[in-house]
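<discrete_fold_record>
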Amino acid sequence: MERPVVRVEFLLSRTSAPATQEDTLIARDLLDTLIAHHESCVGMAANMIGELKRIIAFYDGGRPRIMYNPEVTEQSAPYDTLEGCLSLTGVRPATRYKRITVVYQDERFRHRTEKFSGFTAQIIQHEIDHCNGVLI
């Protein structure tokens, strides 16, 4: 079910709790909301729909994906960029990394480690910042 997008910075700046298997409906709503905003959004975190859980949804090569409890464990090749956000007005500066390694749980809560690069890596870093209460 598509949910309204949270735009209150106080709520967005709170740290999210670890996701559990009981949070799969939140992930479904997050994915539905991302898909509903596909023309203006490439990634979302659960706090953007009012849920303080470590869940992100993003497009990877045009395909929507979900990650539970993602963490960047390796990063290389920093660069500075400007990013927009569906929850915030305007663009803001951010330092990102061209290549990252992420540990996470997939849709079946299996532990995974995966490498990402380029724009997909940037999206994931932005959404993990949301989970950590960091506003870009």
Observations:
- The chain is about 25% helix and 40% strand.
- The chain has a mean pLDDT of 96.
- The radius of gyration is 14 Å.
